[in-house]
């Protein structure tokens, strides 16, 4: 099992998880600031190199590839911001004029309320 630490790319964690799990055919499990990948077959060992290149491909696809380093350390892969800047999604506004949390689906009428709420995910 591999753990991918994505605290610096938390707002794209879900998209990243779907992309990487699909690329390497693994079962993803979402955790707080990270997700894990398990192989479909217990005997199979996940190829860290493949997982890293899938992560890099994803970051390139959102034009963030050069801003992040993807480093593996035993069974943990860290995605670390090089500049110190983290990816923040701003498209939280939906068609209905409501704001919804990209992490848990929490909905509010006010952007400021959402911003306050979002902090719980960054602790
Ligand atoms: Zn939330």
From TrEMBL:
Coiled-coil residue windows: none
Signal peptide span: none
Domain of life: Archaea
Domain C2H2-type: residue ranges: 99-123
InterPro entries: Znf_C2H2_type
Molecular function (Gene Ontology), one example: zinc ion binding
Database matches in PROSITE patterns: ZINC_FINGER_C2H2_2
Repeat listed as a keyword: yes
UniProt keyword Zinc-finger, yes or no: yes
Keywords: Metal-binding, Repeat, Zinc, Zinc-finger
Protein name: C2H2-type domain-containing protein
Organism for this UniProt entry: Nitrosopumilus cobalaminigenes
